[in-house]
Amino acid sequence: MSLFRRRKKSSNTIDAGTIITGEIRSENNWTLCGTLIGNLVALGDVVIEKGAEIRGNVLGENVRVAGKVIGNIDARRHLHLASSAHIIGDTSYQTLRIEEGAFFTGKMELKDEHAAAETPGSEIPVNRMPDAEPVQNQYTISPPQPEPAYPIRGKRVVIS
Asked: Which of 13, 49, 65, 78 gives 20 to 30 Å between its CA and that of 98?
């Protein structure tokens, strides 16, 4: 029997009622039931349970959201939004599943399978604008107006 046995990826959990402030970087799977104020970067799967909240970016292999995320989500493979999910931010994924009742505000980006394999898994990508001269615009930008919500089969759906 060897002292240095190879371990399976273990799962880390932040329990309900726990509030963590700061960034988490891990090679393992994560299940969040509490609150995280900061980024979560995992090489494994990420599960955000109902009642959990993240105020920061999330990066994981497969990401399942049933709670609230205020920030961007980058699922290297699969993104699943449960019916209780509430997301304010942009998402990127290779495959997507959205259950009826999930709330989402932001951009959705389908990743190319080959491009995702080349992206390093330990960093959240940052889109940077190229250096350019500021553009003079004759138009003014008005603040966004609230979008109307229409009842569909007893559910509220935001139509943009």
From this structure: 13
Quote the radius of gyration of the chain (alpha carbons, Å): 18
The residue segments making up the domain with residue 94 are 9-113
* Residue 130: inside a domain: no
Number of domains in the chain: 1
Distance, in Å, from the CA atom of 70 to the CA atom of 51, rounded to the nearest integer, reads 13
Residue 15: inside a domain:
yes
Answer whether 50's CB lies under 8 Å from 65's CB. no
152 found inside a domain:
no
Q: Please, which pLDDT band fits residue 7 given cuts at 50, 70 and 90?
A: very low
The pLDDT tens digits for 58-116 are: 999 999 999 999 999 999 999 999 999 999 999 999 999 999 999 999 999 888 765 54
The rounded distance, in Å, linking the Cα atoms of 66 and 68 is 7
For residue 120, give the amino acid letter: P
